[in-house]
Amino acid sequence: xxxxxxxxxxxxxxxxxxxxxxxxxxxxxxxxxxxxxxxxxxxxxxxxxxxxxxxxxxxxxxxxxxxxxxxxxxxxxxxxxxxxxxxxxxxxxxxxxxxxxxxxxxxxxxxxxxxxxxxxxxxxxxxxxxxxxxxxxxxxxxxxxxxxxxxxxxxxxxxxxxxxxxxxxxxxxxxxxxxxxxxxxxxxxxxxxxxxxxxxxxxxxxxxxxxxxxxxxxxxxxxxxxxxxxxxxxxxxxxxxxxxxxxxxxxxxxxxxxxxxxxxxxxxxxxxxxxxxxxxxxxxxxxxxxxxxxxxxxxxxxxxxxxxxxxxxxxxxxxxxx
Amino acid sequence: xxxxxxxxxxxxxxxxxxxxxxxxxxxxxxxxxxxxxxxxxxxxxxxxxxxxxxxxxxxxxxxxxxxxxxxxxxxxxxxxxxxxxxxxxxxxxxxxxxxxxxxxxxxxxxxxxxxxxxxxxxxxxxxxxxxxxxxxxxxxxxxxxxxxxxxxxxxxxxxxxxxxxxxxxxxxxxxxxxxxxxxxxxxxxxxxxxxxxxxxxxxxxxxxxxxxxxxxxxxxxxxxxxxxxxxxxxxxxxxxxxxxxxxxxxxx
Amino acid sequence: xxxxxxxxxxxxxxxxxxxxxxxxxxxxxxxxxxxxxxxxxxxxxxxxxxxxxxxxxxxxxxxxxxxxxxxxxxxxxxxxxxxxxxxxxxxxxxxxxxxxxxxxxxxxxxxxxxxxxxxxxxxxxxxxxxxxxxxxxxxxxxxxxxxxxxxxxxxxxxxxxxxxxxxxxxxxxxxxxxxxxxxxxxxxxxxxxxxxxxxxxxxxxxxxxxxxxxxxxxxxxxxxxxxxxxxxxxxxxxxxxxxxxxxxxxxxxxxxxxxxxxxxxxxxxxxxxxxxxxxxxxxxxxxxxxxxxxxxxxxxxxxxxxxxxxxxxxxxxxxxxxxxxxxx
Lengths: 322, 252, 328
What we know:
The complex is a heterotrimer of chains A (322), B (252) and C (328).
Chain A: H1 2-21, H2 30-35, H3 37-72, H4 84-98, H5 105-129, H6 137-159, H7 163-169, H8 186-198, H9 200-207, H10 210-215, H11 220-241, H12 248-260, H13 264-288, H14 297-321
Helix pairs in contact in A: 1-13, 3-8, 3-9, 3-11, 3-12, 3-13, 4-5, 4-6, 4-11, 5-11, 8-11, 12-13, 12-14, 13-14
Chain B: E1 2-11, E2 14-24, E3 28-33, H1 40-47, E4 55-60, E5 63-64, H2 70-73, E6 77-80, H3 92-97, H4 101-104, H5 110-122, H6 138-151, E7 156-160, H7 168-184, E8 188-192, H8 196-202, E9 205-210, E10 213-218, H9 220-223, H10 226-233, E11 238-242, E12 245-249
Parallel strand pairs in B: 3-8, 3-9, 6-7, 7-8
Antiparallel strand pairs in B: 1-2, 1-4, 4-5, 9-10, 11-12
Helix pairs in contact in B: 5-6
Chain C: H1 2-14, H2 17-37, H3 44-76, H4 88-102, H5 111-140, H6 144-169, H7 174-181, H8 190-209, H9 211-217, H10 221-226, H11 231-253, H12 259-270, H13 276-301, H14 308-327
């Protein structure tokens, strides 16, 4: 039964991926790839990279969200609700200000990830100041921290007249610019996801608290640092390559947990597959809805994500009542 | 006189009040007693129109509490609940001044100031009148709230656990003041009260509730009986007469 | 902290609420005078006219932010929730965006058309917000944290929905998006300003007549009913008035998330009284001071006149986190 579920999930995702390869402005079909050199070029340079990027970003962000939820012991948190993503954006903007144009994507990634780490650390520090941690105060504080950091970013962008490129770049969440040679960094994110899967149990133990972790002989601090680094790197890379993708890291782990419980080692594969599927689906909707124009995946994700998040919250309210 | 007729109240599937019918006489102190969850506070809130009953009616000296305009009722009856949380930072005097709102709509006259001072002195709050509520102890605050409803100068005063937060000295003082308000000012006071010995020694009339129903009512002599209290509270009770007062012993 | 408290009690003695209002009013007037007279340049008439439009816009927005937040917090009996944080502004933007679908093409600039359009959109906002927030408060049983979280998310949902709709309408337009996301104080037209001024004066008078009622409502539901108020009716009319005010401000400049939260909480601290006849003018004047002073600083200090709403977002967010930390 278990492997059957997994099999079905993989099958559905494969179906979506293949469909994604043949959706877009140009009419790429199986026969035109074989016959037409230009179509073959589009297919290899644009469609394949785009689909791979979608799969990698979607699954990595969902897993990053899951890890964040485990480490903060709060279901309603994810990188874009903890100031992490916004901090990565700020880092990226600073690179654009300090070293325009010439700087390599690798440097951008380092900066973005470093700021993501700092932003998350700031968030954790603020959380420590809240003594009575109600489950909802944590995401509320995170959202506000995020908007404060965004305000800094936007202000700087205005000052240096970079607002338009900032908008397109950071708040785009747009896969239409993905081409061969501009997305390969995302493979690193894939590796990080695999790594997370490998050390999943450590995160679970760390989430039980410092005392518990020490008791079973786990270096709590080390695991926390490791988890936060994975989150920061993932967020930083994704924002450099595709931009902001809100809510994925929140809704996917929550939906999976509702269906399958909280044994992380068991659920991570499903979190990956569903996250990839959701982002892929949003991007495909964006590609077909007003052809020949495109709507960024993040715009659609913003609507769908907010609705699902609301559903999760109200469902929780239903529990709280009784 | 308060006429309570077939009052029913449910939350979801739980019955809170089950067909309550009774009459509370005019004048004196009436105490409502009963175990936790008996529906005492709910009944008091419905009499004070803070809650709506599912069915049934309540008349307070001829006025139906649901259909009568709220501002007219506010001159007939006042109600104080247990929890009184709000954000405004008020002094004791300002709070008590709100008791005059039904008459003045917020514009206080010299006559109102007189009433406010009376209420303050009635509850021994004159020295605290300029202090802010958040600077007071729980007991002082409780007295300030009671002063406010007394300042409202209504014939009927409903109080939910007025002895909450009060130590022995202040609890006795509060009950004495309420007795005074009933005897000298002719008020009808209805209390929800946990301490049955206070109920016994200060009330003229007692209503006993259990599981949403009215199970006994009468003067202290009729309620302060071992078999009756045992039935109400599900716990062994002995009754002793001390200085002419009936006292329940249930501690051990 | 102790010395601050001491300072406050000291000033309380000398500064009666009336004197405070005069003080804030004087500061606001002085700032207005500076705003109108600094660096006038050659084209005097044009510049004065343009600045008076901006100034009037700021006065209207300050009025809405201060007044609507204070009365909203009074009836919802807390100091964190605000109309903006509940997503009402973004709901109005969404309604405006959807409305574009229906009269696309009819680019009618006739003022009566604009007013009818505004009236329809505002009625829709009032209707939706009443339904939505009544449902919300009923569903979640007055758990303030949950209401706040759902409010923020609803705002996010409305924002991203209008974002999506605008992309659908005009896939290439960046300027529209930007205009909707950041509030701008420079785009209001004279007829819209005049119309808004009339609306807020009327609503202001209604609220001013109820200033003593709001003092009682601030005590909470049970006390308000005990003192003879028709609580339900007052809450509903307040939500109605708040929705109209928010619609006016959002139509003029766009969403401003934190201004109301900041000035309302500062007003509780600085009005020197809990009474709404002092709180309401204080909140209004403080909002005006914040807006004009901020604009002056940004325009002449940093030469960035367009960034006021972003700066407000920055300070507002920090202020909000401070409020949350203080509460726990």
